[in-house]
Write a structure and sequence with these properties.
Largest sheet: 6 strands, mixed
Strand order of the largest sheet: 5-6-7-3-8-9
Structural class: alpha/beta
Helix content: 25-40%
Number of strands: 20
CATH class of the domain at 281-499: Alpha Beta
Strand content: 15-25%
CATH topology of the domain at 281-499: Rossmann fold
Shape: globular
Length: 612
């Protein structure tokens, strides 16, 4: 017997004072769905999620939620007025006896529940919003860019958490690795309509290209038919005026049908042009170190960057990646050691805070009012790599409409702000690009184009990012900052760094996804071998092999939750002080212990079968 859908949208239409965002849109979310919601920046992904969450009322249509199903939405900019701490906000909808859930999630997401709301950064607020959603555990989770402002370790934790949940979710993300791991089906929003493919994200691009190819073919056939009918009308209408008026009306209908077709938005016409070549040596750091008070950012460290290098800086949030970047570019002085900058350097900087954008000014003023471009804020033209361009024409290259040119920057989505900052950056000639978290909020297609541009760029690239796929495709050197002032240089991108690090017996222990280490390593200490023998898994099915890979992470998560609950129940006065909380924590402990036992048994059985 088919189960009732968790959520159903029927005939949804929505307009915000201009072209329709959606028109007669239908959508169904079933129990157990793991959906990636993809589409261009500005296509309406976040708006659609708000409609699904009941936060935006459509002009027409119906939103039906299955009785008893809770729908949880992770807010991008959560309102925290009235809450003293992030933990107070995250636990605000929970029974006080279940507040321990926030503490367990906070550990994985790496934020401090006791941090006062009024001093919390935007990233900390978003992590608290994500913790609130995960702790509530609704029947359907709506996750809008949950990986933004998370470091790679926290992303891996969230990946594992979502991969083992039975809760249905809809996910918006630019992180390809994240989408590939989690999505079992794809919702594609394109020109106000949503298409569904019941395959993972890996199959999306081939599907999208096929849809566009078929669409172009149909358009071509329609154009040919209109052309043939128009020729007939010109050549034969006067001789057969009365008899063929129906055919004339049919021609008019064909032309109207062609006019009604919504033009597909092209890709951004972005271009990077390097200026005069820098010297062969771009930056050389000799024995540099840095600390802020008692916190050690960097122990004495050496690094040599030459022209054309693509250097990525990775590590947990707060470890000092941006500080090291600023030291290498001369913006921050090291406490000791020296920085030698090369000759003829032309820097272009993409900062993660988007501080170069004036949010109250228009897009037009942001482009023309930049003193670095040598023009006033009221000019009609912008200098683009030495040549004048009309502002509107240049903005159209980055997929902004003429109407948006005069709108304030604060009206833009996160992805549109990132595109505008790229427009400012790419207007300059440069030979060193400094990109601090450029991938946040950008859609997948724009990321693809940016990666191609960086591949063809003649200059040097210094990159901070938590997007593993982007790091793999761009970086040829990775500087891993691992805390306590340690920084190590590795050849290659993220995957190369992980594999080299696993081979180092002296490497300090860090958390990693179970899929990135041998399966046994997540549950028992394994001594590194010179050449570890591959596990024969021919006797396992594909799903069983995947399960064998994911079980260690599930076991580690259950062990961590059990430890938290045992710590909570260790309070001898909890039973008399908060009996309800004591009862619920006890029930949760028993449940997790049973799940742990079952998971360990399953892992042992699969491991024995895999080993033959």
């Amino acid at each position: 017997m088919a189960r009732a859908p968790l959520l159903q949208l029927s005939g949804i239409s929505l307009t915000f004072g201009g072209d329709p965002v959606f028109s007669d849109l239908d959508l169904v979310v079933q129990p157990g769905d793991r959906l990636a919601l993809v589409g261009r920046n500005g296509s309406g992904k976040s708006t659609l999620m708000k409609v699904m969450a009941g936060l935006v009322e459509p002009d027409t249509g119906e939103v039906v939620v299955s009785p008893g199903t809770g729908v949880g939405y992770m807010e991008q900019d959560p309102g925290m007025a009235g809450f003293a701490t992030l933990g107070d906000y995250a636990a605000s909808t929970l029974d006080p006896a279940e507040s321990y859930r926030v503490e367990m999630v906070a550990e994985g997401l790496k934020f401090d529940p006791s941090r006062p709301v009024d001093v919390a950064s935007g990233g900390e607020r978003r992590r608290a919003a994500l913790a609130k959603l995960l702790a509530e555990a609704p029947g359907l989770m709506l996750l809008d860019e949950p990986t933004n402002h998370l470091d790679i370790e926290a992303i891996a934790w969230l990946e594992e958490e979502l991969s083992t949940t039975r809760t249905a979710f809809v996910l918006i993300s630019h992180d390809r690795a994240f989408l590939r791991r989690l999505a079992k089906a794809t919702l594609w929003i394109d020109r106000g309509q949503v298409r569904r493919q019941d395959k993972g994200f890996d199959a999306f691009e081939a599907w999208r290209d096929q849809v566009w190819e078929e669409e172009d073919m149909q358009r071509h056939k329609l154009d040919r038919k209109i052309k043939a009918e128009a020729r007939w009308a010109v050549e034969g209408i006067s001789a057969r005026r009365k008899r063929n008026q129906g055919r004339v009306r049919a021609l008019a209908d064909l032309r109207q049908q062609r006019a009604d077709q919504i033009r597909r938005q092209g890709t951004a016409d972005m271009a990077l042009e390097s200026g005069p070549k820098s010297g062969k040596r771009v930056v050389e750091a000799r024995g540099i170190s840095k600390r802020f008070g008692d916190k050690v950012i960097l122990e004495p460290f050496d690094l040599k960057i030459q022209r054309g290098d693509r250097v990525a800086f990775v590590g947990p949030n707060g470890v000092g990646k941006t500080t090291l970047l600023k030291m290498l570019t001369g913006e921050v002085e090291p406490d000791q050691g020296e920085i030698l900058l090369g000759t003829n350097l032309e820097l272009a900087v993409f900062d993660q805070q988007r501080a170069q954008l004036d949010t109250e000014a228009s897009l037009w003023e942001n482009l023309t009012g930049d003193p670095g471009l040598g023009v006033s804020g009221r000019a009609d033209q912008v200098m683009v790599r030495g040549a004048p361009r009309h502002v509107v024409g240049y903005l159209k290259d980055f997929l902004f409409s003429e109407a948006q040119a005069r709108a304030p920057v604060r009206s833009l989505s996160g992805g549109e702000k990132a595109r505008l900052l790229l427009a400012k950056l790419m207007a300059r000639e440069s030979n060193v690009l400094v990109l601090d978290e450029p991938t946040n909020d950008l859609d997948v297609e724009t990321l693809d184009l940016l990666q191609e541009l960086l591949g063809d760029y003649d200059g040097t690239v210094l990159l901070v990012s938590h997007d593993r796929d982007f790091l793999d495709r761009v970086a040829d050197t990775t500087v891993a900052m691992e805390g306590d002032g340690r920084a190590t240089v590795y050849a290659g991108g993220w995957s190369d760094y992980r594999s080299q690090r696993a081979e180092r017996p002296d490497a300090p222990a860090t958390k990693a996804r179970p899929s990135e280490v041998p399966a046994k390593a997540a549950v028992a200490e394994v001594k590194p071998a010179a050449k570890p023998a591959p596990k024969p898994q021919a006797k396992l099915s594909f799903s069983e092999s995947h399960r064998l890979e994911t079980l260690p992470g599930e076991i580690a998560r259950l062990e961590a939750e059990i430890g938290k609950l045992e710590q909570l129940l260790a309070d001898p006065e909890l039973f008399t002080r908060e009996p309800v909380k004591f009862r619920k924590a006890t029930e949760a402990l028993v449940e997790r212990q049973e799940k742990l036992s079952a998971a360990e048994t399953e892992w042992l059985e699969l491991e024995e079968r895999a080993a033959g």
